[in-house]
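worker-03 picked up job from queue 'complexes'. Input manifest follows; two sequence lines, order preserved.
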Amino acid sequence: MTKDFVVTPWEVKGDIDYEKLIRDFGVKHVDSKVMQEMEKLTGGLHYFLKRKIFFAHMYFDEILNEAKRGNKFYLYTGRAPSGPVHLGHLVPWIFTEWLQDKFGATLLFQIPDEEKFLFKENLSFGDTDKWAYENILDIIAVGFDKKKTKIFLDTEYAGHMYKTACAVAKKTNISTLKSLFGLNDSNNVGEYFYTCMQSVPAFLPTIMEGKQTKCLIPCAIDQDVHFRLTRDVANGIGFPKPATILSRFLPGLAEGGKMSSSIENTAIFTTDDENTVRNKIMKYAFSGGRDTVTEHRKHGGVPENDVSYQYLTYFMEDSNKLKKIYEDYKSGKMLTGELKEITVEVINEFLEKHQKKRELAKGVLEDFMLRD
Amino acid sequence: MTKDFVVTPWEVKGDIDYEKLIRDFGVKHVDSKVMQEMEKLTGGLHYFLKRKIFFAHMYFDEILNEAKRGNKFYLYTGRAPSGPVHLGHLVPWIFTEWLQDKFGATLLFQIPDEEKFLFKENLSFGDTDKWAYENILDIIAVGFDKKKTKIFLDTEYAGHMYKTACAVAKKTNISTLKSLFGLNDSNNVGEYFYTCMQSVPAFLPTIMEGKQTKCLIPCAIDQDVHFRLTRDVANGIGFPKPATILSRFLPGLAEGGKMSSSIENTAIFTTDDENTVRNKIMKYAFSGGRDTVTEHRKHGGVPENDVSYQYLTYFMEDSNKLKKIYEDYKSGKMLTGELKEITVEVINEFLEKHQKKRELAKGVLEDFMLRD
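worker-03 finished. Artifact:
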């Protein structure tokens, strides 16, 4: 029986069936063949791949073929600036940074500041400007190569994007957008047009290089719908179809589903201090443990349901250590409190480093920006 | 009885009832009060006003009030580049040039190259680029002040427009656009979004001046629907409502309605040579004369139905001469052939000057352009 769940670019809720998403979205598993090819090229696999956090793709095999032939490809990901960055946002960026490092690829980092402006009634461009600045600090803190990373705001860079967005728009009618995005006649026209702008960075590599150049988009699977549209129009307007590599969602503290800034106390923000992180995890992280210590010792916990354990799969690099924790928690040897302690420590260690790099980002921000 | 006619930005056909348009579009007559105010300010009236070629307006009285107080206002008009310029296109530009001269106003001249690209299946951006260049030569040839005229292509200038277009879009839903423009779900999303870009130049004066600055848009009445939308959203996004002053359509040679590049032999193009103009008028210009010379001498012609005579009302500045022609034609003293001869002469004299200025425009084109 499939439980009810929703995955759109604007809403993720319920108990997500990732296998069903693969079927519904018409994408492919990151299977062992792809992983072997990848390992041959990169000399190792990021633990996000081994742990199937990046679990699905489209045309990623073609990107690997390009790389094998020594051909250039670009990376493209993005961040819509409407609030602070939380740990869930970082997941695709961390993986993108790893890909950039392994393949020496140029990264186009889109800040679609108009997206949230258009979709959120009370959000002004003043707000998006403020959040764009804050969010870009987090992006830079992830460690991207300054020489190979171009960050741009749609409203600033539109002079280089609008023409191509119109080419996408000409191929995209209202019926298609209604069925893809669940929009209706009461939605504003910017909400409809926006996806055309999200397509453009997938084509900028070809425009920038002056020849057909492929693009790989690492992102969470809720964004796939935009790139299905991008793929549908690409060839017809003279561009190669972009590839995607798609991640699961980092669960929210209490909710499961997807960590979300808009649900209070479900998100750990990159600027949270040690105590805040500790309090949030201790108080809200959904536990896979039993009701009493006696029960827990007897039957063991359920790491698959435990949000703290899930966080470790995203942020604890050491797979042996993680395996030990899994076993100890499952056997009942480790209690929820102990698991949470470890998680607090791992997250805080990660954030301490991130926050230092975030401070340093203030001095180099303009080096990353494609203004204009 | 009202005859059937259609006036939209994309189609003008039938026997146009301009009084009905004024009621349907909710605009006002350019009445004697407005003309008196205008005359006080400018020391004279353009014959387009006296002859009611510019016959309707919205908020034009407010523009005159601004001028009276010594406040700056901007002019804004445009040209979508999908083919050669014909005499009909020149009408609002000639009037705009007169307004610029009388008020010393800055003119924003929009070249919405994406509009025709989006609406015409087989038109490429390569085509619009070519026509943009050709059309801009005609614009400059009209005689605008280089220091006070800024011509821009939407796809080039989008970096300065897209953010404001999104502000318009946020206030504009699909239902509204369907009812204003007669679009449906099979139209592409660019056709829907485009009007937001057409609104932007009405707001650029305020953005450029850094304070609330009014804008007057001289154009043919088919464009009014765009600016109704612009007026509806203006205040809500922090801009003054634009004023419009609206013209009738120069009729097509054979068709009446509106001169159109897409109906062969109905248009006189600015690059037509003397013989072509002569042949077109002689062969195609719909005559208000009688079937035989005898009949004509007896009953006289109908200047109101005669396309050549209509052209004279647009291109013969001397009102006394025009009145004489009207009377002679109406009385039967003047035959259609004679009227056509005069028209050929007037149009060719106009075009000879225009074509010289058009050649000179090649050397100064970039001085007018707002690139970027």
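worker-03 released lock.
Chain B touches chain A at residues 114, 117-118, 125, 154-163, 166-167, 169-175, 177-178, 183-190, 192-193, 196, 372 (CB under 8 Å).
DSSP finds 17 helices and nine strands in chain B.
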